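Input:
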Amino acid sequence: MELKIGLIGCGTVGTGLLEILDKKREYLRDTFDFEARLVAVTDKLKGSVCIPEGIDIKKLLDLLHQGERIDAYHGEVGSHEAIDALDLIEKCEADVIAELTYTDIKTAEPATSYIKKAFRSGKHVVSSNKGPAALHYHELKKMADNNNLFFRIEGTVMSGTPVFSLFENGLVGNEVRAVQGILNGTTNFILTRMEQDSMDYADALKLAQELGYAEADPTADVEGYDAVAKIVILSNVLLDGNISPADVRREGITALSKDQVLAARAEGFRYKLIAQARKAGRRVEASVSPRKLPLSDPLAGIMGAHNALTFDLDLMGKITIQGAGAGKIETGYSILSDILAIHSRLRR
Amino acid sequence: MELKIGLIGCGTVGTGLLEILDKKREYLRDTFDFEARLVAVTDKLKGSVCIPEGIDIKKLLDLLHQGERIDAYHGEVGSHEAIDALDLIEKCEADVIAELTYTDIKTAEPATSYIKKAFRSGKHVVSSNKGPAALHYHELKKMADNNNLFFRIEGTVMSGTPVFSLFENGLVGNEVRAVQGILNGTTNFILTRMEQDSMDYADALKLAQELGYAEADPTADVEGYDAVAKIVILSNVLLDGNISPADVRREGITALSKDQVLAARAEGFRYKLIAQARKAGRRVEASVSPRKLPLSDPLAGIMGAHNALTFDLDLMGKITIQGAGAGKIETGYSILSDILAIHSRLRR
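Output:
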């Protein structure tokens, strides 16, 4: 069965998805009877292309890898009118819109408008964007449900390491009492270097920036805002919560000194930036803060840029999953896994 | 939607399943539109009951908890003719047979005959029995496929901690290059006690037996046979292998001394009984043996009776899941999760 896909945003995640679709085309067709027809791609910085009969993914990837604009697909750069993303979402013939634009955690725009437009024009949405999922999950999910559409967001937390899919399939029937995780790879990398190489915070941050783990302005990571967005999403999706980022007690790692980290280690503990949420009666209480974990805690062993999440469940007790928390192919994969989940549900 | 369930074998796992079905009846109905109608239960030691209109689960659990026979459900112990399990499987009106009899890893009987009988009479099978899955997976799966039936075996590896469901949903589209895991809780408990309490192997084994983690004859666990069965199942289900237990290089933990365990620890390593399988061309190579892992390995941190499995994947790299590897409710849950997976596929 063929699914027609439209990409809104074509940076790292979109490129990763296209690389996987290109590499795995035959395997996906033979194993799952899945064919992706790419009908539209738009990116604020790179332009757009929209072809109902299907875009040649290899040809588009060649352009992207050469740093060319998406417009250049037709061979005549600049000759095409700029296409408005909202118009494209409405008019393209996609079954599924992959919303992969940049996260704005304060406004969740323009992503939220894109997602609503997709639902209004009868299209499923998969998204790795933390803004809409953290600020408007219930509203968007309801809109999808009311229109008999899917809204899937695996990539918003731990990239392609399955969290939502793991729960809705492998842990179905359990009640989630709490979740606790290391959800930000940048801060975990910094804390790992501070402990293992006795680095000061500032030096470890600089190294993270040099290696591409941290951005020039590292605030979203080191002050905990990124982890806050993720714990809000987990709270609202897995714990039936209805909280927003302002409800989360937040403390970053910037006040943590090398001496504290090394002293903890000498006592058999390890500092981690822990995001957690738990049910407290009908409410959900969530926080992000550095915590001293005993080394026996499953989260204490998560080093470098890896992520992990522990579910505390009424039937299964504690289940922990760990894996990549970022990466081009890994986050691209999260989008594919959501598309395949839709494909599998539509096929039956 | 209602599913009619027949239980073949009603020991710990069956009782765990019944306890969950009793406790979660309303939740499962309201959340998943799932109703379980228990139509038959048979156990070699406890007798049988078969009621097409449905067995009262609470009433049956009361009998089981009081140590009564299943026959006593009708109030007249011994007044009913013994029912042959094969007959019951054929004649009862179950949609799904839960095959929960004792594992015989040498013959896989009588479980394999039960499963074949179920398929021949048009019934889906869920099973936590390692015998049929380790010795006859491909044959049974083909038989199920040819009859448009499901054969699900989540509980055979790591009890209810999702392994097969995790892969078929959350990691769909990845190729598994290798798996590596701690799949036997008894030996992991023994190794943990040897290291943490400086116990000799014999003393740690005795403690495991006192606490109910090890059987009076511990051979299947400590000599690695249980882990061999599990790595064979993983090889054949996840790595497209076609191997049998005799193909697995096997070494147990009985030759491991306290001194070796403590010396490894002093060097920053930890002994674990590791089951692993990897693709080597078109073949799968599998082994079970004690290995010295660096403490940074995700499996090195798995202590006590817990289990864990690392998937090595072409797209997602390494993903590790850890959780319970045994337990009444946990293994009972594995059966429920397979039944819910069938329910969800039949509903659509």
